[in-house]
Amino acid sequence: EQLATYADLADVPFEVVYDAREGDVALRRLGERCDVVIIDTPGRSPASAELTERWRALLDAIAPDEVHLVMPASVRPDLA
User: Per-residue DSSP letters for 1-44?
Assistant: First the structure.
């Protein structure tokens, strides 16, 4: 909901997808009118193998040009 609000305020297209099939359709729809598409995936625990596989399949299907890891500023370097 927060990202949808930001997209609305910035007057930019916004899509929500839950699997690789939806991602492909959304990417084609966005690609028709967008030069850059930013994809945000949910934070997850390293122990969540099922969620990791689901998002890996989505990213593999989309084949992004770049992937960036974003971490909270509060993460302690000795625990990262």
Answer: -HHHHHHHHHT------SSHHHHHHHHHHHHTT-S---------
